[in-house]
Amino acid sequence: NKFKEGLAKTRNQFTSKVNDLVAKYRKVDEDFFEELEEILLQADVGFETVDELMEALRFEVQRKNIKDTAGIQSVISEKLVEIYEAGDENITELQLENEGLSVVLFVGVNGVGKTTTIGKLAHRLKGEGKKVMLAAGDTFRAGAIDQLQVWGDRVGVEVIKQAEGSDPAAVMYDAIRAAKTRNADVLICDTAGRLQNKVNLMNELEKIHRVISREIPNAPHEVLLALDATTGQNALVQAQTFKEATNVTGIVLTKLDGTAKGGIVLAIRTKLHIPVKFVGLGEQMDDLQPFDAEKYVYGLFA
Ligand code: GDP
């Protein structure tokens, strides 16, 4: 169970604190609720989700006349899943064409794990029998093109690239042409991760969008934002900027295995209303998992 393994850090802190609390209080009362709230906030679940959860818990405790804390964990899990799934942002599957070329554009700040995620996703889609190609659209960061090529070689998919410093929109144009010629199913495009001022970011992404949609009207089919779970609230700030700059259709939350604050998944859902489509649970090729609220929450309490 990848989720269970990947969430070990969060589970060790968050769940053991909840378990300690349950043992300490025995009775469900206001003090218990208050301390639980504190633990949830420390796990980066976020104020909004915590408020929502506490309200749901209080209601449930009253309705079922729950007096003592034994077994309250399962009520918490149930409510967390309900809260997550109540949103309209639960389309976790990639929305790709059944026939013809689909384009997936990746955006995100340098260092969050964008290149690694592109490699992992290429591997996953290839495993589903799709012909995948990569476009090296980060022509700005030194080494970005080589790094993508390394992943291309590892996974066994072709990388379309130009020289460092060339126009990313021109790379996209080339890549789409090449992908069409080779009858590829999915073209995954990297982009530069500079978070300069928002206007520049917006202009650059707009230009890329324009070139892509001129070649394929429905493309890009997905714009996936890579966020580093270990950066906590900072990830939310990045997400807000990208959301304002372009139409982000999904989030890939990387390095969830590297943080004890895995509650950030829930904060993203409440704050941004963008579905988390995948989570990164390690550095290896098959450490990318489709996000599943139930597996995630039960992974925490397992
Ligand atoms: P980029 O600059 O956004 O393209 O970031 P990279 O793909 O180069 O990743 C930066 C570092 O994060 C690398 O050392 C990756 O191995 C690591 N990394 C990426 N995703 C994950 C993940 O899900 N879990 C862990 N533990 N490390 C990851």
UniProtKB/TrEMBL annotation:
Residues 275-288 form the SRP54-type proteins GTP-binding domain. InterPro entries: AAA+_ATPase, P-loop_NTPase, Signal_recog_particl_SRP54_hlx, SR_rcpt_FtsY, SRP/SRP_N, SRP54_GTPase_dom, SRP54_N_sf. GO terms for biological process: SRP-dependent cotranslational protein targeting to membrane. One of its GO terms (cellular component) is plasma membrane. Its EC number is 3.6.5.4. Gene3D superfamilies: P-loop containing nucleotide triphosphate hydrolases, Signal recognition particle SRP54, nucleotide-binding domain. The keyword Secreted does not apply. Keywords: Cell membrane, Cytoplasm, GTP-binding, Hydrolase, Membrane, Nucleotide-binding, Receptor. GTP binds at residues 108-115, 190-194, 254-257. It catalyses: GTP + H2O = GDP + phosphate + H(+). Part of the signal recognition particle protein translocation system, which is composed of SRP and FtsY. PANTHER family: SIGNAL RECOGNITION PARTICLE RECEPTOR SUBUNIT ALPHA (PTHR43134:SF1). This is Signal recognition particle receptor FtsY. It comes from Psychrobacillus soli.
